[in-house]
Amino acid sequence: MYSTTVLTDFVAQHYLTVPDPGPEGEPHSHHYEVELRFRGPELNEYDYLVDIDDAEAALSSLSSRYRDSLLNDLPEFETYNPSVERFARVIFERVTEAVTDDTVTELAVTVWEDDEAAASYDAAV
């Protein structure tokens, strides 16, 4: 199985909407790092798993959308608690719409909200 990984980072804000979230219920910032790991059993005719330019364009679009935003105000988080786990799923859905290489069979998205805490979402594409 082949894999290709690309990374980006940005600062965004959120607040948790669960009962009794403590200080996490107040708006606060995180320096998020997003890792996309594309996987597949074969390479394309150019010996690539994924077009790295497309993957980097998807990351650039993500960074532009979320940088300096309050996640709670965005439609993709409406009615959802904007946890790091939910954020990983949202990013997965956006990336699979943007990067459509036939050789990619799986995508894993890991979102680090600081140096010690991360969440991932991965599935077949």
TrEMBL record:
Give a Pfam family name. PTPS
User: Cross-referenced InterPro entries, in alphabetical order?
Assistant: 6-PTP_synth/QueD, 6-PTP_synth/QueD_sf
Organism lineage = Archaea, Methanobacteriati, Methanobacteriota, Stenosarchaea group, Halobacteria
Which parts of the chain are coiled coil? Answer: none
| Cofactors, names only | Zn(2+)
Does this UniProt record's set of keywords contain Zinc? yes
Q: Per UniProt, which keywords does this protein have?
A: Lyase, Metal-binding, Zinc
Name of the protein in its database record: 6-carboxytetrahydropterin synthase
Origin, by domain of life?
Answer: Archaea
